[in-house]
Amino acid sequence: MKTLQLISRLLDYPDDALAEHLPELTYFIAESKDLTPAMRDKLLCFVAHYECRDLLDWQSEYDGLFERGRAVSLHIFEHIYGESRDRGQAMVELLKQYRSAGLELAERELPDYLPTYLEFCATQEEGAREWLEEISHVLALLAARLRDKESVYAELVDALVDFAGVEVDRDGLAEQVAKEERDDTPEALDKIWEEEAVSFSAAQGSACEQSVQRPSAAQFRDDKSITWVDAGNRTAG
């Protein structure tokens, strides 16, 4: 499922390798037979937006978007359990699923990090859509909140909703999100930092010490991987 691996990479923190190979990604997306026209347009829109942007500006935008407040957190269970202790047990169970799929954890990242979850889904072949359906309500809400912030990252999450094949009342979600109180203002952030930190003792001992080894910009786990070449001589595997 190279599509899910691709979206996983685009949702992760932008680095030099990703920025350098955006032209090749454009070619890959345009030529991919696994994408519906709607999904293709959304992914191309995202890549085109950042293709001519300075990487430092992109990274700054990413930090400002995903590291301020919780509304658009890329940690799935943040939206499901919040501060509940149930989140810790859910981490443990998800980690078991990763290990049963043969995924080795290498970085300090919680298993409910969306790019990590997508990497796992990509190993599940026909079962990938079922795993996405499990979090489709989170994805739909996340996409609506990103769109409310006028972020092009909404295109990526919307593409995941399309991939899951679920019906979504986007207009209804947009109205709901418009009424939400912002949590990324200085006042809201101060309040969050004053709250007691959540502890996931059961999951953190394993999940934080090791996290799913996500592919680099030049690595995909499907039967064939993308081969990065000079933009003037693009090749997709």
From TrEMBL:
One Gene Ontology term from the biological process aspect of the record: nitrate assimilation
UniProt cross-references to Pfam families, sorted A to Z: Nitrate_red_del
Keywords, comma-separated and alphabetical: Nitrate assimilation
Domain of life according to the entry: Bacteria
SUPFAM superfamilies per UniProt: TorD-like
Cross-referenced InterPro entries: DMSO/NO3_reduct_chaperone, NO3_reductase_chaperone_NarJ, TorD-like_sf
Single annotated GO MF: metallochaperone activity
UniProt cross-references to PANTHER family, sorted A to Z: NITRATE REDUCTASE MOLYBDENUM COFACTOR ASSEMBLY CHAPERONE (PTHR43680), NITRATE REDUCTASE MOLYBDENUM COFACTOR ASSEMBLY CHAPERONE NARJ (PTHR43680:SF2)
NCBIfam families, per the entry: narJ (TIGR00684)
Identification of the protein by name: Respiratory nitrate reductase chaperone NarJ
